Each structure stands twice: as structure tokens, then as C-alpha cells.
Amino acid sequence: MRHSLGWRAGLLAATVLASVAVGSTVLAMTASRPAGSGPGAHGPVQTPRLVQQQPRERGTFRPRSVPGGQRGFGPLQLPPMPQDPDDAPLARREPLLRDGNVPYDFYFSRIAYSGTALWGYASWSVDFPKADRQFLLGVRRLIETLDLYPFENAMLLDSEKLRDFPFLYAVEVGHMLLTPSERDGLRNYLLSGGFLMVDDFWGSLEWAHFVRQMSEVLPGFTIEPVPMDHPLFHTFYDINRVVQVPNLGLARDFRRGISTKTWEQDGYTAEVLGIFDENRRLMVAINWNCDLGDAWEWAESFEYPLEFSTYAYQIGVNTIVYAMTH
């Protein structure tokens, strides 16, 4: 795995300063689940009926256009993409380098996995690329010492360059259908020190499908709750409770007082769970029954409640800091 010592030193310094700013008290709490919540708590789980999307050319990269094509681009001006990715196969796309062909120290890399189609788009690309870019705008302001690539970076799991990027992000994993080469690529990546952040999947059916997929990636490993005294919740911000972050529609109704519903399907309780390696390093951070990506994507909208977007940015920043310092 490629890690820049200079970047890591700067990030550690920023973390120390942040600890002074927010206070160093760590509140020890145990992860709690109300009755009827959590994996396996809903009785027998039926196999979800997933329809494989029609494949195009391997690795074709067609995100929603920037800035006009994705519905709801708000008043916050997103930086223009320095190259047009629409017609570039993902397998041949390269993230840009700085002057002198020097790579940035951090790339927010989203997994472009094989899966089903949602609303006419590949499931891996939900909220893409606006959520990625808008999140990075916030990260750049919060961690000024972080030398980050300011644009999206979608990666194939079977790419030989995957290990160049020690942080991966995946959404809608309840619709993920990994090929054998993708399973091998993700397994080798995680066991070699890589980190995966999972977001935006809901309820018992999508949970059961995700567990099946991961059991083929990491056979013999277990998924368990991440306790509130774990460094994931305290590396930059002190987070003392898990907040269920809803999609834009639910958040809008919540703000207007029309409804207090923040969940989808039967995902009534948000949880942060993880997969640990044999040395208890957190390899996979799983945000279940939660949609952090929508909070990043719509953070500029007055209709999106601050309490949800604040938590989404805080847990996102903490996850990056944890992944890059462990």
C-alpha cells in the first residue's frame, strides 16, 4: 500500500490540534440495539430478487453530467472536472496528478462494482459525482493539511492499481453482485492493509444480501458492532451517538414537520458495524440504515437539516482519519 509519510505526519498533527480544540474526553459507551433491530432480528430473511443490469463495454464510465444533468445541483458551485470522463472507459481512466506528475496523497475512491441498475444508473454510482465532490470540499476546509485530490475517483476492484488507494467507499451494497475477480481483488486489498467504508443500504433484505457477498470476499470473518469508545468515533471529532441520516425526501419532510420518519424499508435503527482483521484493525466500516451520501450531496440545501449533514461530515472525516492512521 502506498502511504506518504509526509502526509501522515501532517494529518497526525491536525488530529492532535483537533483533539485540543474539541476536548480530549472520550465517552465510553456500549453499542445498544433496541429490540427488533440489528442483523437477524427480523426473523427469516427472504432472498432478495435482484435483476442483473445489462452489461455494456467492460468498465464504461457514464456518470451524471456535471453540473446540469444531475437533478438538484444547488447554489454551491462545484469545481469543473478537468477532463470529460463521459466517453472514457473506467478501466483506462487515470486520476490526475499535480504538476511534475506527482500524485496527491489522498484520493476519495469509490468502488465501481458489478451490480444491478437503480433509476437507470449503475447502483455503485448513486449520488455520484456530486456527493463525492461536495464531501471533499468540506474535508479540504476541515483538514487543511490533507493533500487531497479534489475530484471523484471511481475504481474497479480488479484493477492492478487498486492498492495505490488505501481508502475505498461503496454505496447501495444491497445491490452488489461481485464477480470472482472483484471478490479476489477486494479480499487481497483488505488483507493487505486497505480500508472500505460502506454506506446507504437499508433493511433486512439488503443486509442479508450484503452479508452473503462479504462472506465470499472474507470467509471466516465476522461482522460486529463498532463500540462507541472505538477510535473511529473519536479520531477527529468526538461522536457520542449514531445518527440515522435520511435521504433528501425524508429529510425535507422531517424539516417541514410533515413526518418524523428517517428510515427506509425496515431499517428502523442506524448502526455502525465493522469487520476486523486478526490484529483488530478495522478493515470495513459499515454504515447500515443510513445515507451519508445524500447528506453530503445536499448539504448546501436549506431543506436538508443541519443535524443530519453535520453528523455525516463528522463520521466521514473521522473514517478518513482513522483509515489513514491505522
Under CATH at level 1, the class stands as: Alpha Beta
Low-confidence stretches: 1-77
User: Main sheet, how many strands, which sense, barrel?
Assistant: 7 strands, mixed
CATH architecture: 3-Layer(aba) Sandwich
Query: Please, what is the CATH homologous superfamily?
Result: Domain of unknown function DUF4159
Structural domain count: 1
Question: At the third CATH level, what is the topology name?
Answer: Rossmann fold
Q: Which structural class best describes the helix and strand composition?
A: alpha/beta
Total E-strand runs: 9
Helical residue percent band: 25-40%
Report the order of strands and helices: HEEEHEEHEHEHEEHH
Gyration radius, rounded: 19 Å
Averaged pLDDT: 78
Shape: globular
**How far apart, in Å, are the first and last alpha carbons?**
12 Å
In the sheet with the most strands, the strands line up as 4-1-5-6-9-8-7
Number of helices: 7
Strand content: 5-15%
Structure notes:
The strands form two sheets. Strands 4-1-5-6-9-8-7 form a seven-stranded mixed beta sheet. The chain has a two-stranded antiparallel ribbon with strand order 2-3. The chain is built from seven helices and nine strands. The radius of gyration is 19 Å and the shape is globular. With 326 residues, it is α/β, with parallel strands linked by helices. It has one domain (5-24, 98-325): Domain of unknown function DUF4159 (Rossmann fold), CATH 3.40.50. Mean pLDDT is 78; it is low at 1-77.
